[in-house]
Task: inverse folding
C-alpha cells in the first residue's frame, strides 16, 4: 500500500513538472542611446521593432538570436516655428506590412514596412497631443494620449484620416488599451482603469453610457483581458485579478504580491507572464481567477520593461541605467 502511495505521489509530481512552464536565458543584445524610455515593442518575422522613447524607432534583426544586430531605424521631424521638432517613439503595433507608431508630439504615424530598410510614413494623425499607445480594430485606431485619455480615428482613407470618437479625459495618461466589443478598457497608472461602453455595432463608436472608473491604491500599469478575467500589473500591489462578467463594474477577486513592482504582462496559452522590474514571473492560469506561480527568473543588474512571446521564444526589453538598454532572449520550455 505504501509503495502504491509513493508511486502515486511521484507520478503526480512528475506530471506537474512536465506541465509547468519554465524560461531560461539564451542570449542578450545590449546597446545605448540618450533619453531612452522603453515601453512596448513588437515582432514581425525576423525583425524586432523597438521604440526607444526618444526620436528613434529601432529595428533589430533577430534571425539569429545569438547575434542580434541593428538592421535599420525610423525617425522623423517636422519644422515648427523654424525649429526641428522630433517625435518620441513610445509604442508600436505591427500588422502585416504596416507599423502603427505612437510618435508622441508628432501623433500617430502609419508606416509602410514592406522594405524594412527604407521605412516611410503613409499616413499621419496629429491633434496637438502626445500619442503614447495605440490599438487597432479593423480600420480604426484607438489612440491613448499621454495626458488626454482616449480618441478613436478612422484610417480607411490614409489621405484623410478622421476622428470618429473623442473620449478625452484630462490628465489621464493611457498606458494600454483593451478592446472587448462593445467595451474599451484603458489603464491609466495613478488614474486606475476606465471602461467605455459603445452602442452596437461598436464601429459606430457612439457611447451607450457614461464611462466608469475603477481605482486602485497603486498605479494600474497595464491590463490584459482573457474572456471574463482581467489581469492588472498593479505596480507595488503586484498582480491583481478582476472578474469582468460586468465590464463596467470590475470586481477584484484576487491579488498576488510579486517580487517587485508589476509593470507589464503577457499571456501565452494557459500561462501569464508578469514583468516585475528585476524579475519575470510565470503563472499557470488554467483556473483564470486563481493564478498559480510556477517559475521566476531574476536579474539583479537589469530592470525589465516589457515582454513579447513568439512561439517558444520570449523577448524581454530591459535597461541598466538612463542610457543603456537591451533585449534578453529566453527559451520557453
Result:
Amino acid at each position: 500500500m505504501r509503495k502504491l502511495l509513493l508511486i502515486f505521489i511521484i507520478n503526480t509530481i512528475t506530471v506537474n513538472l512536465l506541465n509547468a512552464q519554465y524560461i531560461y536565458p539564451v542570449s542578450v543584445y545590449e546597446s545605448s542611446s540618450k533619453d531612452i524610455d522603453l515601453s512596448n515593442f513588437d515582432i514581425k518575422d525576423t525583425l524586432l521593432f523597438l521604440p526607444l522613447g526618444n526620436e528613434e524607432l529601432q529595428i533589430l534583426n533577430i534571425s539569429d538570436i545569438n547575434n542580434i544586430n541593428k538592421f535599420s531605424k525610423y525617425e522623423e521631424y517636422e519644422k515648427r516655428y523654424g525649429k526641428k521638432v522630433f517625435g518620441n517613439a513610445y509604442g508600436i503595433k505591427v500588422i502585416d506590412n504596416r507599423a502603427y507608431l505612437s510618435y508622441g508630439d508628432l501623433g500617430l504615424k502609419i508606416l509602410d514596412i514592406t522594405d524594412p530598410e527604407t521605412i516611410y510614413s503613409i499616413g499621419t494623425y496629429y491633434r496637438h497631443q502626445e500619442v503614447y499607445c495605440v490599438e487597432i480594430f479593423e480600420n480604426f485606431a484607438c489612440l491613448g494620449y499621454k495626458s488626454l485619455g482616449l480618441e478613436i480615428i478612422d484610417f480607411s482613407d490614409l489621405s484623410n484620416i478622421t476622428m470618429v470618437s473623442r473620449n478625452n479625459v484630462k490628465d489621464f495618461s493611457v498606458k494600454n488599451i483593451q478592446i472587448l466589443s462593445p467595451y474599451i478598457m484603458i489603464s491609466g497608472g495613478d488614474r486606475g482603469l476606465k471602461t467605455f461602453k459603445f452602442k452596437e455595432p461598436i464601429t459606430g463608436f457612439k457611447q451607450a453610457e457614461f464611462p466608469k472608473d475603477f481605482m486602485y491604491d497603486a498605479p494600474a500599469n497595464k491590463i490584459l483581458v482573457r474572456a471574463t478575467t482581467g489581469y492588472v500589473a498593479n505596480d507595488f500591489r503586484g498582480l491583481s485579478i478582476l472578474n469582468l462578467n460586468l465590464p463596467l463594474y470590475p470586481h477584484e477577486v484576487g491579488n498576488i504580491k510579486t517580487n517587485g513592482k508589476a509593470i507589464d504582462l503577457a499571456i501565452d496559452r494557459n500561462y501569464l507572464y508578469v514583468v516585475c522590474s528585476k524579475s519575470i514571473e510565470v503563472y499557470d492560469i488554467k483556473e483564470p481567477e486563481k493564478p498559480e506561480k510556477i517559475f521566476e527568473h531574476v536579474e539583479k543588474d537589469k530592470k525589465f520593461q516589457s515582454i513579447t512571446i513568439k512561439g517558444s521564444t520570449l523577448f524581454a526589453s530591459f535597461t541598466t541605467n538612463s542610457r543603456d538598454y537591451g533585449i534578453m532572449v529566453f527559451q520557453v520550455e
In short: The first strand starts at residue 23 and ends at 32. The longest helix spans residues 2-19.
